[in-house]
Amino acid sequence: MRMKMFAAESLEAAKAMIFAEMGEDAIILSEREVPGGVEVRAATDKLGGGMVPSEPRFVTRLNRTNGAPRPQENPLRNRVRDALTWHGAPLRFAERVADAGIPVCAKSSDPTDIMAAGLDAMISCDPIAARPRRDILLVGPPGHGRTATAAKLTRRAAVADTRILPVAADLDATAGGAQLAAYLELEQDQIRVARTPDDLFNMLRTAREDGERCVIDLPAIVPFDQEDMASLKDLIAVIDAEPVLVISAEGHPEDLADAARAFADAGVKRAIISKLDVTRRRGGVVAALASAGISFAHLGVTPFIGGGLVPATPARLSKILLEEASVDFALRGAA
Predict the structure, then answer these.
(1) Cβ neighbours of residue 133 under 8 Å, at least 6 residues apart?
(2) Which of 4, 144, 166, 251 has an alpha carbon 20 to 30 Å from 86's alpha carbon atom?
(3) Domain 135-331 sits in which CATH superfamily?
(4) What is the reported pTM?
């Protein structure tokens, strides 16, 4: 089902717009009066799913009461809020993003610009360099794509004419080295495997002496398991590597928020969002990282190892959430 909000001077005018655009089978979901007219939400099954369409490309400016101008409710602001809530973001977060983007309404009638401005006020973006200053320790819950992300970072470095060593920290004996090898046919000779913490420390010491940088694929960590999180904190305290969270866009928004906060408490400052290409509702993970104060580093927008990561920016997130991003835009900067 596809939904859209229509704004018009009267209910009859709004219905005429709805039936003209959506067809006679459109269903009226709600209607309400706003200063200067009405807003009517309608839906249809015929326009396809997964997309949150645009509001009317205009802004209702002012309503004069006793000669004093008063801002009217803004359909574009509502479009941003509704898109975020449709994507699973908590209402409070959606309202804050929409309100933060309102000043842009005077310059643009494009909801993607408004959402981008709102997100820019709420989140920070900090991509990882192709050759990072410190070794990278990838952490995250089971099934969120750490190994694929380690491979993507390795391939990304190669494309940038540098290199990093992918290290499978196979501390749970799950054949992490074989999993990395399955992804990295071109970088087989760079893969390192550590089967114990001592192996890992020695391997990193040797790599640093040789001037190498490493991306370490750590075993899965359950953020709600106190022992797992205590072990992670101990490892972060003794290893000179930056912990970077790999978190899938899939999952319940509150679970994602709880997980993000747990990893933030362990010292995580940046995150890579995975599985954006297979997830329909993506707002929960955005709100989760924002609430935990974790910066957005990269977005996983394709399953491919080459070109599988793009730098996170408010503009790119906005277009992805409003589903108005072209393939070229979504992949711009991919490596």
Answers:
(1) none
(2) 144
(3) P-loop containing nucleotide triphosphate hydrolases (3.40.50.300)
(4) 0.76
